[in-house]
């Protein structure tokens, strides 16, 4: 139990661990190789109410907060596979985004479906010429008598093939240097794979995910006025509010993945014998694993502090970014050390640790690079000159 947690939180951990234990490494390997959504896993989470953990009870959720979601994501990731990161798109961008900023009609339409596992989300933000620099997006939405027409292109959009709704970010007013945060709007686009005006091209990557990555093109995509999430031209404020929860959720996933690597390294080092003794009895193996565990334990505290501050409506930008930075670095390092402890077996698919490293290495780059995280801390926390 982490400092400040209650018995209820401990019960959440135990319940989530039981779910994760029912889906072994072979299950996740099969879904990654076949690029198939883990439907049984998703349904198990829905049946126990965890997909709606941060959704208000009046909309079918559990009425808890980001702290409880962080616990769930950590434990699912520590249980193996991609159980933690699968949480981010729908419960975070869909559930928290609509809970915080949706109209009453949108809340009643979407939130119960998210809570019971009926609806999945994808997020369309990144563009070929506007990765980290969201202000530079070129996808535009022009107002019409019926609503809006969207044209443009996105790239590295995850899981469109599994999504019932796409959270689409588009520019609705020209960029104004005197008011740079004005002019971006969020849209809820239902049935994205079946809509006229949307075309998909798969982007090949080497990351072992069960979901595909896409370039998405919009050609006069029609969206309704009621599809706007929040306010027209005010989407960046909504987006940044949600992005803090993405940082926290991503940090929890990297934390759990790093602890998974430590667990596997400890098990292997206790079983594997060389020169008549378990390799874990040798300091060259034991100390790096122990150090990684210590680092991850420390990173967990800042992750949970970020979640608690978010739940209390306090500014958690520093903590959320620090959590993302530390868990991505320490998690990747832990996976690297787990590979080393496994020797040649560390590079085989049967032993999982190389796949963990691949996924954790990505967290240093996406959804935001660690360099941009350091820029944020240097400028906004330390008061240093803007460096980008």
Q: Could you explain the architecture of this structure?
A:
It contains eleven helices and ten strands. By secondary structure, it is α+β, with helices and mostly antiparallel strands. It has three domains: 7-120, Acyl-CoA dehydrogenase/oxidase, N-terminal domain (Butyryl-Coa Dehydrogenase, subunit A, domain 1), CATH 1.10.540.10; 122-233, Butyryl-CoA Dehydrogenase, subunit A, domain 2 (Beta Barrel), CATH 2.40.110; 236-381, Butyryl-CoA Dehydrogenase, subunit A, domain 3 (Up-down Bundle), CATH 1.20.140.10. It has a four-stranded mixed beta sheet. A four-stranded antiparallel beta sheet has the order 2-3-7-6, with no helix packed on it. A two-stranded antiparallel sheet has the order 9-10. The two termini are 40 Å apart.
